[in-house]
Amino acid sequence: MIHGAVFGFKAMLVPQSKPRPRAALPACRASPGGQQKEDMAKIRLGYDDVKIGVPLTFKIMNESGRTLLNIGYVISSADQLERLVERGVYFDAFEEGVATSTAVERVSVYQLGIAVAEEYEALLAQPIDAAAISRLAGIAEEIERICLLDADAALAMILLHKTPRYSVRHAFAAAILTEVLMRELKQDVADVHRAVKAALCMNLCMLELQDKLYRQEEALTLEQKQAVVLHPQRAVALLSAAGCSDTALLDAVYDHHEMINGSGYARRKKSPDLSLISQVVSLADRYCAVVSERAYRVATPPNIAARELLSRQAATIDPQLSSHFIKVIGVYPPGTVVTLVNGETAVVVRRTLHPLHPVVRSLRSRNGIRYPEPPKRLTSKDSFGIADTASPDHLKGVDLASLWPQVEGEEGAEEHGA
Asked: Domain extents for the chain?
């Protein structure tokens, strides 16, 4: 069984009277005259500090002071506010600005995700040393940030973001799903961060082999099979040599192919000796592999992938983790291309509480004519119900970043390049 998780559906509305701890974290810096000067007092965000639909009058930051949301950003839903509060974010007690109409660059959260994925790919082209481990931690933070801003846009990258290197996009996709699952399981910030890093690091010692196997149509050789079995152990050795001493993270990397019934590898561990982090990373790893194409097969549609994973491999997955997985990913997750009962071709952009009825944006009419501005459709309505999944080829020529709302990208871009 999974321990430490709170199960059940979240309330749609967040009560304004819900109490939260008010932790203050004063920070000081030395002034030119040598005296200590109070720079800021970070206060943990509570439900009463923000009004949904009203621009922020202060920046929201994480515990280390990294800006997550700028002044003027609009928190648009109770769910997004709850994710912020549950994560444990802060604002400066002495800062108060006014949201202005000054023009700033606005970017799609999907596009922010692409930028982070490109940084991750560039990092993997370099030797993995202590500096690289530090940069991986920063990339993990950025993944957490884009999931916080728009988890649907982030999840869509699992199906839509394609790069020449399968090994890179697979680990990045698994990290996104890991983040969203860990949040759903109400895990603390440190463990969420640790799990995302584990997903990013799990295959560090088999990147080239993964890319080769992606293109390979014949069966694995004995040497390849041995390399696959040994890659968790080798990844742990590489991370340890680079200065990583986080035992829980290293265990998650080592155990990301273990199964709760002991049928996995490399140590044949089973429940209850497997951490929740390793189980979440393992599930994300398997799902993202199934929904991706290979030289010898097409990608499995996500609705079929989830069903087969949770039925054929049910004995290897904790039942409660399975139920949370379905709640998070749905039957038709963001990025799924579908046909509607009215003949339109659409792409899923938002999950809802009902896994069968996401929000979509229609790309083409039943006659194949492309909509210049893809309209939103509620698939819970009979006239817009989902008839079937469709080929991702329908997305050719579509500006994917335009399918999700934009946020201010100026400061995020500066930090991203730091």
From this structure: 24-102, 108-329, 337-403
Give Cα 406 to chain centroid, integer Å: 17
- Tracing tokens 């701890």 back to the chain, one arrives at 21
Q: Determine which of 18-32, 143-157, 197-211 has the lowest per-residue pLDDT on average.
A: 18-32
Residue 303's DSSP bridge partners are none
H-helix or E-strand containing 40? strand 36-44
Neighbours of 114 (CB within 10 A): 19
CA separation for the pair 258, 275 (Å, rounded): 10
Give the pLDDT confidence of 41-98 residue by residue, as tens digits: 678 888 888 888 888 888 888 877 778 888 888 887 887 888 788 778 888 766 555 5
Q: Quote the CA–CA distance of 311 and 93 in Å, as a whole number.
A: 50
Distance, first Cα to last Cα, the chain:
41
Question: Strand pairing of 359-364 and 345-350?
Answer: antiparallel
Phi, psi of 242 (to 5 degrees): -85, 0
**Residue 99 φ/ψ region, left for φ over 0, alpha for ψ in the -120 to 50 degree band, beta for the rest:** beta
CA 285 vs CA 32, 174, 215, 307: distances in Å = 51, 5, 19, 16
pTM score, whole prediction: 0.79
The pLDDT score that the predictor gives to residue 156 is: 97
Cα 262 to the center of its chain, rounded Å: 28
CATH superfamily of 108-329: Hypothetical protein af1432 (1.10.3210.10)
Pairing mode, if any, of strands 345-350 and 337-340? antiparallel
Q: What is the CA radius of gyration of the chain?
A: 22
Query: How many C-beta atoms surround the C-beta of residue 146 within 10 A?
Result: 25
The per-residue pLDDT for range 20-30, each reduced to its tens digit, is 444 444 343 33
